[in-house]
Amino acid sequence: MNERFRFSPAPTGDLHVGGARTALVNYLLSRDGGTLVLRIEDTDPVRTVIGAEESILEDLRWLGIHWEEGPDVGGPHAPYRQSARGGMHDERLRELVVAGAAYRCFCDESALVHKRAGDEAAGRAPRYDGTCRGIAPEESDARAAAGEPHVWRFAVPGAQTVGWDDAVHGAISIGSDDIGDFVLVRSDGTPTWTFASWADDIDMGITLVLRGDDHIPNTPRQILLSRALGLVAPRYGHLPLVTGADGAPLSKSAGDPGIAAFREAGYPAAAVVNHLALLGWSDPEGRDVLSMDELAEAFSLRRVAKAPSVHDPDRLKSLSARHLRALSHDGLVEVLRPFMPPLPAWLDADALVEAARDELVTARDIAKIAEAGVLVPAPADIDAAGRSALAIAASAIAAGSRNPRDGAALLGEVRSALKAAAVPPRVGLHALRLALTGRESGLPLAALLNIIGAEEALGRVRAAHVDISEPGTR
Question: Which of the listed CATH numbers 1.10.10.10, 3.30.70.260, 1.10.1160.10, 3.30.540.10 matches domain 259-334?
Answer without folding.
Answer: 1.10.1160.10
